[in-house]
Amino acid sequence: MKRTLRYGALLLGLFAVAAPAATAQGQENAELREKYDKKLQKEFVSKIGWANSLEEARATAKKEGKLVLGYFTRSYAP
Amino acid sequence: MEGGTLLEDWWTKISQDFVPYLNVTTQLEDSPDQGLLGEKGGNGFPTLYFMEPETGAVLNDWWWPDSEETVRSTHDAAKKKAADLVALMKRAEANKDDAALQAGLKIKLAMMYAGDTPLEELGRLAETEGLDAGIKAEFDAWYGGRMVASARDEAGKTAKSREEFMEKAGAAMYGLLKGGLLLPVDHEAAQDLYGLGLEGAVAAGDKEIAMLALEHYEKVMNKMVEDNPRYEEQIKAMIEEAKGKVDGLTSKEA
Peptide bond preceding B46: is omega within 30 degrees of 0, i.e. cis? Predict the structure, then answer.
């Protein structure tokens, strides 16, 4: 499962090699904002208490003697 | 994952064992921690990293939380790595005059995306006498990948189109190949190094490096077919396209 997904991702990378930062240029900020808001409204976000910044997560983790688990996702594309 | 794993009851329960942090790349300038994924060595979505809280050190490679058992075992392995890192930090703190220990800590943190030592300096630190052999071996495998990632990121930051990116990244990878950098077939940066390096070598008209890049690129891609036969047709077509470019260079020369 893991390897298949990894290679799938690599292949996608090949076809879309380097989407430079410029990909956002054609999108209006309002549209990006709407997508971001929609992302934050997803059920998985309210399901558990996510920290909203790494700084906040690290401070809490230090206090509680835990590790941070960062989940990196995106809102500008599916 | 957001409609599956992250809604499971076991996920809700196990997430109490660590501090979950949500990082959404938005392409909106005022969003928090944009670019953090790249700073932590990631290059795709979604990515999950366990991190040590004192340093922000990344404790695992790319993984997929397909079950409670996977999350638990990845968390356990991360806790062990965090403990090892903290022990190393304590030893370094207690032995400030030990150059090898200080170098080892800087290298270790950099490999875990928590240090701010420039790549070139890390290369020098890796030559420190008495450096832990395990750290040295780990560093040697990691360093090449970072050189590739750094070159690719730099091209991505400045390129305004896919064509410009290919040109800039290709030239950078060509430079790395020309400088003698080679990565194992299963290294995650190997495809970039050889695929883009081939483009750069062809653009520079350098037949020798183009053939070297092609030889390794073919191995990388064939390994990919071995692991994922369902992509065979696409990958073989890519190999043929690469061969055509190098053949074109050879016939131009002739």
Answer: yes
